[in-house]
Every structure is written in structure tokens, then in C-alpha cells.
Design a protein that fits this description.
- It contains 37 helices and 19 strands.
- By secondary structure, it is α/β, with parallel strands linked by helices.
- Strands 3-5-6-7-4-8 form a six-stranded mixed sheet. Strands 12-13-16-11-17 form a five-stranded parallel sheet, with helices on both faces.
- It is extended and about 115 Å long.
Amino acid sequence: KKILNNKSNIKKVLIKAVLKAKNSGHNLIGTHHILYGALDLIEEDLELKNFFEISKKSPNKLKMKIEELIKNDFMDLNKLSLLFQKESILALNNLIKNNIFDEFKKKIFMSANKMKKTYKSISSNNIIKKNKSKTDKEYYHTHEVVHIMDREKNENTNIFSNFAEDLVKIAKQGLLDPLIGRENELNRLIQILNRRTKRNPILVGDAGVGKTSIVYGLAYKIAKGDVPYSLVDKKLWSLNLSSLVAGTRFRGDFEERFEAIIKEAKKEEVILFIDEIHNIVGAGSAMGTMDMANIIKPILSQGDLQIIGATTFDEYKMQIEQDKALERRFQPILVKEATVKDAITILYGLKEEYEKFHNIKIREDAIESAVKLSNKYINDRFLPDKAIDVLDEASAIGNIAKHSQESYKKIRNFYKELNDIRKEKEEELIKGYYENAFNIKKKEEDTLKKIFLIENEFKNIKEDKFIITEREVRSAISTMTNIPLEEVTPVISQELKDLESKLKKDIIGQDKAIKALTLRIRRSRSGLNFYDRPIGSFVFIGPTGVGKTELAKILSKRVFGDNNFIKLDMSEFTEPHTISRLIGAPAGYIGYGKGGQLTEAVRRNPYSVVLFDEIEKAHHQIFNILLQILEDGYLTDSAGKKVDFKNTIVILTSNAGTNALKNKREIGFEKQNKYDYEEMSQELKKSLSNILSTELLNRLDEIIVFKDLEYNDIKLIIKNHLQKLSEFLLNEKNIKLKILPELIDKLAKLSYKEGEGARMVRRVIENKITDKITEGIIKGKIKKGQTVKF
């Protein structure tokens, strides 16, 4: 009884209980913690100590059991207050008011055996205040520990402080980004809020167009008092739905919590802002209870509560419009994507904020480039959000660039060296080698001086503000979109200047076709492509094996780099239903939502050569897809999403009419060995017009005709193949390959067959050379460092 028979002991028990709860990671204190605190004071009470000795009971074992109870019973409780069983609460109140310590002790010990599932809470402030003494150090200790539990300071604002943010307060602190432009939308928002009925606006627009920023603009206006009289004293709270729903595991928890918010909002003249408001449909619904949307419908109709919502067009249509009763309680405000001009104005307004944050300077050309380039290269997002992201990324690039990476490495290495020196010094001191330790200390001082000098140098670098220009913006665009930096640079690269000559080295005998192709690509890449269409669209038509597909592959590598070649074999798309493979299966069919073979490939690699191989074999519905790509520069997939083709080169290949042309050449008294290129072009284009519609042919940039390969062309192709084989053997196997001129003639004769192109070349080289080298390596006849002659 003596433990709790004075105020000093009861305070000690409470302090120990609070500390135990804190160390156990609990946000509340229960009878377990208090009993644990009481047992901690046994050593100070001889009578109780003797009681345990006589009864042969171990207080330590009892404490261990209580610790188990604390671990098992208190992990899931989540109210920030002192929790007690009903009996304990009454006992503690009597203790505080009347100093009935015996009764308190009795109830505390009873609760150890009678822990129930029903708890009530009392404020920690009430307990502390009753025992408050300004000279009492233990009170201040208790107050400090309890403070970590985030106790209630104001019952009126507690519910909002847990689940919402006061946007007006944040605006007064200048912590919200300013609203630039959007005067019409903001005025409309204020106008709806001032209505007598149905005064709940909902901002509807694509992601990133600035819906939330409009609400921030309203918060700034309320903070400044620049609003109609009816809104001057209003509070604007942003409600966090995830926090509101979190922890509501039992039936009625969510309704009780939300009803408290509504009650407080009515009382305090609060306007609630709910971002992603479509989530209220179904929010909090469990075991047959009403969701948030159904709870607010009657309240909104009464006009006692005002809510501002924000959502996207798709979600509004799917969630809000489906519920007509919910829809008519909101007044939609359509927020369209900002124009390029408006987006530039917005970025100028945000310029100072990003300069302060990144400690850099942003030049005007960087702002304009961020908007124009993001609008051109980032097609799945909206202005101004994508332009702001680009500017932020460019600023981060500049911020990193101004810090010398060498300085970082030097400082890190010197600190590592300093730690090693100090360890060595300590070891010498332990061994008693004081002279050695003294010498090591000099090394330590020298290292510290070096660190000091480098850190000062680094500090000076930090103080110099890096200037963000168009160069950093282009680098940011390249990083964010995986587009090669050369693609977003206005100057025509050397690779593009040398494109024709390099293609002629790789593709033999098609000089006219290559010239026509490179001319079109240069025109587009030099900025003279005025239309929203692909960079280039071509039909490669000609006999089999003359290099049509090979030219498309090499063009992709030269213009866009590796892994940017998309090939679609049209022999796989001969049936009507196969069109779904290109753009994705429609709703209700297997594969819906997975995306199309063509649309997903271009979405992932917007800078690609897209090859429709052997277009004459495709079903005619494929041509309708090509019409949309070539005319509008985009394709709509089965999910309704637009895939941008403006940065692709579209190539169709065809053998149409080549067999008829070959037969025509062989008819007559004398076989024609050569056929006029212009005459052949006319014949093949005429054949092509029988396959492709006139409207599709008119949308193509160029119809490029490939001629038959001649004997000398085959010889050059063989030389190219042998050169590549020689380089491979030398680099990979350290074997030199030497080919005699007469062998090239022999291989050319075996490979050349009129009308079949160069398809036999690879097979002949493999049979006559590669297989023999392989056999020699396996049998050990050809070893590293040797020269092989053929």
C-alpha cells in the first residue's frame, strides 16, 4: 500500500509507465504500463519486498509476464491518450481529486487480472494538470515524455489536423506555388461558391492542367482577403481521403469519423477540398455500410456543407456521371490544357521559386524551350505540368553540374584517410608507443588542413549560381524521354550530313533510292516539316533480295541508334480480326488492356523506324490504320489513348508487280538483259496503285523504286560480307582472314542469279568459307594468331 500512498510515488509510477509505453513504441498508456511502473518501485518499499519473499513470488517474473501482455495487447491501439479500463478510470479520477491512493492501488492491481476489450480514454492533460507544480522537476519530465504523443491542444481543430491541411494557413506562410493565369476558372470557382444552392464546384480536366493550382489560387485570395464578403472568414481545408479511411476496420468507424468532420466543417465555416474526388465513390464502404458519396448527398442538398472537388474527364464520366444524384449536386468547371503561350507565362511566374530552391539562375530561352520542346516531344502529358517538370529537371541537372565531382571524391577520400589515421593513433596509444602516436597526430593535423581547404573551395563553387540555358533543357528532355540528345538539338548532326554516303557503303546498287530517301529525311530533320505527320513515309518497291528491308534496318541505326527498329510482317495480318493485334483487343475480348503490338512498341520507342513488310499481303483494314498515321501523325488504340507517330519514319515494302515485270522482259525474240530504270519505276508504281488506294498513295512522301542487282553489285556485297567476317575473326578469335581476288569472282558466280538479288550471298559464304573455318577451329588446325587464306 505504501508505494502509492504519496504524490511523489504516484508521479514516479506515471513517469515509468509513460517511459515504458514510449520505449515499447506505443502511442497510449494502459493499466499494463502502470502496473509495470508500480513493480519498478518494489525496492523502495520493504513491506512489499518482504511480501514477495515470504510468498516466494518473483516480481521479475511478474514483470516479464506484464511485458508479454504489453507486446500482445497494445500493438493495435491507435488513440493518442492514456487508456484505462472503466474501473481504473474511476479510480484514477478519485486519486487525483481526493488523494485516495489505496483505492487507486487496488484498482490498478485488479486491472492486471481483469483486462477487458472495452476501453475509454481520458486526456493526458487532465492527469498532468492536477499534479502540476512549477518547482516540481518530475512534472516537467512527465510533460516532456507525454508531449511526444501529440496530445490534443484544441478539441475543435483536432479532427481536421489529423485528416486535412489548412490551405489558407499554408498560403499565408507562402508555402504554396502561386497561381499564374486561369483567371476565368478562378472567377467561376468563386462565383459557384457564392451561390445559394448547389454551391459545390468540381474542377474537371486532364491530369497536369492545373486543377489543384486553381484551388491554391483561391487559398491565396482568401488569405489576402481578396474575395467576396461571404468568403472572407471561410477556411479552406484539403481533405486527405487515405488518412480518413486508414484504420477504420470496424463497422461504423468511418461513418463516425466522417460525421465528426462534417459537424466541425459546418460549425467552423470550412470549405472542404477533395482532390481526386472520384475516390469518394466506395470510400469507407464495408459490410453493407454507406460509402462517402452516399453520406454527403443529403448534406450537400441541404447547403450546409461546401465541397470543392477535382478529377479527370475519364474518372468524372466513370464515377460521378454514373450517379445522377451525386452529379447534380456539383457544378463542373472544365479546365482545358494551357496553350503554349499561357504555359510560358506560367513558367515565368514560377521561375523565382525554382531559382531559390535549386540556387541557380534560369535564362529566358530555357523557359521558352521547356514549353516548346515538352509540347513537341512529351505527348502523353499536358501543359503546363510537363513543361514545369522539364524545367525542374533541367534545374536539377544544372545544380548537380555546378558541384565539382572531383571535390566530392577528394573530400570523401580524405575523410576515409582521416579515420584510418585516427584508428592507427589509438592503437599506438593503447600499446604505449606515445612517440609514434605523436607523429601520427601530425599526419592527422595535415589531413584536417587539406579537408578544410577543399571544403572552402567547394563552398565557393556552391556560391556561384549556375545559369540554366536551352542546353540543360534539351538534356532534360533527352533524359526524361530516352530520346537521343542529337534528336532534340536543332543543328543538323554530322551523322545526318554523312547519312547518304554511309548508306551507300552499306547498301550496294541502290544509289537513286538512297538519294531520294535521305533528301526527304534531311528536309524533315532540318525543321522544314510543317505538318503534324511522321518524319517521313515511304514505299520501298522492287524485286526480292535487293535491300529494301536491309536499308530500313540500317536507316534506323544511323538515324535513331540501336533498338529503334519496329518490324511488322504483314503476312501475319491477312485476316480482319488480326487488326486488334496492332492496336489492342476491344473491351470484352481476350487481351483487352494489354495494348497493341504496334501502339505499345511506338509508345515505348517514339523515335523509331516502323516497317510494314510486304504490305500487299495485309488485310485492307490495315490501310485505314495507315491513313490515320500518315494524315494525323497519331494512332488511337483500343483503350482510346493516342499514340504519337510524329517522330517515326514509316516504311512500307512491296514486291508488287516484279514478277510480271520479269516475265515481260523474257517475252519476245530477244531477251532483254537490262531494263530502263524510269520505265521500270512507272510499271511498278502502276502495279502498286492496284494494291494501295489513291488516298493512301497521296499521303506517302515518296515511292522509292529499287532496281535489280547486277553481277558487279553482287561482287561488292560479297566484299562487304567478307570484310565483316574478317573483322569478327580478328576481334573475337585473333585469326586473320586473307581472301584472294579470284575467290571473290568464284563466290559472285555462285551467288548471282538474275531476279533473286543478294539472298544467296550469305549462304554461299557460309558454305564455302565460314563452315571450313569452324571445322578447322574445332579440329585444332586453325589456332589463335594464325592467318587463314582462301
